[in-house]
Structures are given as structure tokens and as C-alpha cells.
Amino acid sequence: MAVQIDISGTDTQGRVFLSWTPVPATARLVGGGAAGPLNIVLRSTGAVGGLLFDTVRSDQGSATLPLVLPGDGQPANFWIAGEFQKPSSSYGDAVV
Description:
The chain is mainly beta. It has strands at residues 2-7, 23-30, 38-43, 51-54, 64-69, 76-82. 0% of the residues lie in helices and 39% in strands. A four-stranded antiparallel sheet has the order 1-2-6-4, with no helix packed on it. The two termini are 18 Å apart.
């Protein structure tokens, strides 16, 4: 069982370039095996670039977001944005 995260605006190489403006995203279970809902926590783990998460579009996101993923693979919606004053400096340094 794995968690698949899809973020609006992904380019053809699978990269996402986030700004301070939140964009919609989803997380869902893939690969089966879950008998019921699974609790996860999204967090910003990159070395440099900071990310913020929220369940609604706002400017009040946080560095972590607890989500409940349905066991049937249906997506859970959230919003993601770059964190003010924690910019990315190269590809791949902001990680969920």
C-alpha cells in the first residue's frame, strides 16, 4: 500500500513549481490492502524549500496536515503552497 499525491500544475517531467498562492492537491491510497481509513500526516521535509498545507484555500497553512485517506482509494483533498521566506533554491529541495 502506498500514498499517491497529485498536485495541480504538474509539468510533463512530473515537477511542480509552487508559489505562495495555494493550489489544490489530493492524496489517496494505491495498491489496495487497506481495510478501512488510514490516518496520515503531510509534512514539509525538504532541505531548503518550505511548504504549507491546509484543508481549505487560505493563507494560514501549516507545515503539517493530518489527513484521513479512505480505504477504497478515493482521494482526500487539500491545498499546498510554498512557505514565505523559505524559498526553494534548486529542483527537488522542497519535498512532501
